[in-house]
Amino acid sequence: MRRTVFNEDHEAFRDTIRDFIEAEVAPVYEEWEDAGHPPRDFYLKLGELGVFGIQVPEEYGGAGETSFKYQAVVSEECARAGVGFGGYGVHVNLVLPYLLKYGSQEQKKRWLPPFTSGEMMTAIAMTEPGTGSDLAGMQTTARLDGDHYVLNGAKTFITGGVLADRVLVVARTSPATPENRRAGLSILAVDTRSDGYAVGRKLEKIGLRSSDTAELSFTDVRVPVEDLLGEEGRGFEYLTHNLAEERLGIATSSYASAAAAVEFARKYVQERTVFGKTVSSFQNTKFVLAECATEVEAARSLVDRCVEALDAGELTPADAAVCKLFCTEVQARVVDKCLQLHGGYGYILEYPIARLYADARVTRIYGGTSEVLKTIIAKDIQV
């Protein structure tokens, strides 16, 4: 079906990203996966291309666009090529909305120009060992001492944590109350060069191997009060503000992954022969790909509607939950079926379908597990 969500500017941007991936990413992507992240100067190249600054206001060196559609294009083109941009997604889709919404003018002047150029890469640290999705149960603390906060604690599963230059750390600045376990949380933008800040293990994951994921620890890290993001004690409120966009970002990449899987499988079965016939000539192959293509079309339609809603300021948390739940489940089914059509070669990492399969599993976990999303949706429909 014809898509109407993108205009000529978006398609011109798509051509730019596609050419960039072909020249700068695809030839060396296996090296990135072996290393566990792209080389640091890759982010400077993304900065030069203008990718980081699309939604950054012009006064700070960006393009001043407000639409999410350019980020959707990047997700689709990465999936199409079977590659990733390392910590790009967290930098742009997770951290930037916090800086734009809650950063002071002074903070924006300090942080957004290097954010846009790629000189300052960012990450966000919420999850702690033993707490998982229960953010209200976090134990990391930040005690005010004069004109600094003294930060102590640990975080885990921090995407981009190895190469980040500044990390938004969620910490408890005052005790929770019996009435509200979520009270007392604040967000500090921590300089990773600070004394007492340490990157622990680079975690070895099943998939997304070109994206670094780390453990972080803080031992009496002194954070200037001017690096508090927004107001003290409102951290949990701030975190929930960006959940809809975060979940739409995951849904978009999940749909794009499913679409790419169908295309990889379609090309493979047309070339592969079994019993003297191409695999594509068997009725089972045709039916499986038809089923997959139908699911992908449904996911694409839902994503496009939600992207339009986000740009219009109308995407609700429940809408985003529906989109992420549906698209990640479609991704799981479609990628699995397309791997099966590859036979034994689908299990070999040199084939992009194998990477898609490994990468797909986490999408039903991060950004809100499928079980959490179902709870949100059930509440919205008053069940």
Automatic annotation (TrEMBL):
Domain Acyl-CoA oxidase/dehydrogenase middle residues, every copy: 123-221
Keywords: FAD, Flavoprotein, Oxidoreductase
Co-factor(s): FAD
Domain Acyl-CoA dehydrogenase/oxidase N-terminal: 7-119
InterPro entries: Acyl-CoA_DH_CS, Acyl-CoA_Oxase/DH_mid-dom, Acyl-CoA_Oxase/DH_mid-dom_sf, AcylCo_DH-like_C, AcylCo_DH/oxidase_C, AcylCoA_DH/ox_N, AcylCoA_DH/ox_N_sf, AcylCoA_DH/oxidase_NM_dom_sf
Listed GO MF terms: acyl-CoA dehydrogenase activity; flavin adenine dinucleotide binding
A Pfam family the protein falls into: Acyl-CoA_dh_N
PROSITE patterns (alphabetical): ACYL_COA_DH_2 (PS00073)
SUPFAM superfamilies given in the database record: Acyl-CoA dehydrogenase C-terminal domain-like (SSF47203), Acyl-CoA dehydrogenase NM domain-like (SSF56645)
Membrane spanning residue stretches: none
Residue ranges of every copy of the Acyl-CoA dehydrogenase/oxidase C-terminal domain listed in the record: 233-381
Family: Belongs to the acyl-CoA dehydrogenase family.
Name of the protein: Acyl-CoA dehydrogenase
Upper lineage: Bacteria, Bacillati, Actinomycetota, Actinomycetes, Streptosporangiales
